[in-house]
Amino acid sequence: MTLVSAAALFAVITWQVLADGPLLGPDERLGLELAGRGPAPLADLFADLGNMQVAVPVLACAVVAAWLRRARRAALRAVLAMAAVPALVVPLKLWTDRQGPLTEATGYYPSGHTTTAMVAYGAAAMLLAPYLRRRWVTLVAAVLLTAATSVGLVLRGYHWPLDVVAGWCLSGVLLLALRAGGGSGQPPK
Q: 10-residue block means of pLDDT along the chain (189 residues)?
């Protein structure tokens, strides 16, 4: 996925949410169908992987490792990408004012937990990959942690599926920008 396609998909989904577009009906039916499915303790555990208290320390460890290996610009860019998450998500939640699946409360779009998970685990993978023999392991771990978070959020009824997909798109924009700016932990040569 390119930065432009991730941003475009995010814009389309946001437009659907703001305009109460035709994608919202199927999204809400699917969300209600999935809510409450699966073992609740496991779904809660998965959803919690997107908490700042869980995901950010993982990124912090990767930032320290990159910093100690003199990949300081990459480490700083990863920190900025993570700082951009609440800076973008909070205003979007206020602007879209979307109601959650099993509540009257609003402010559920986009999924902050999904965005936090994907940026934290994805940036950590980018920082650590250059120092591992099997670089793909970090990518697989980041994808699995983000996917688990996403599944947990929908199964527990904390977010609609489109909230989660929007979180992927927003995270994709941030991670692709990080990669374009030299977000790997590779020290300059």
A: 92 96 96 94 95 97 96 95 97 96 94 98 95 91 97 96 97 92 59
Write the DSSP assignment of the chain as a string of letters. --HHHHHHHHHHHHHHHHTT-TTHHHHHHHHHHHTT-S-HHHHHHHHHTTSHHHHHHHHHHHHHHHHHTT-HHHHHHHHHHHHHHHHHHHHHHHHH-PBPTTSS-B--SS-HHHHHHHHHHHHHHHHHGGGSSSTHHHHHHHHHHHHHHHHHHHHTTSS-HHHHHHHHHHHHHHHHHHHHTT-SSPPP-
HEC string of 126-172? HHHHHHCCCCHHHHHHHHHHHHHHHHHHHHCCCCCHHHHHHHHHHHH
For 142, the token pair is 């980041």
Q: Which residues pair with 99 in a beta bridge?
A: 106
Q: Tokens in use for 3?
A: 């930065």
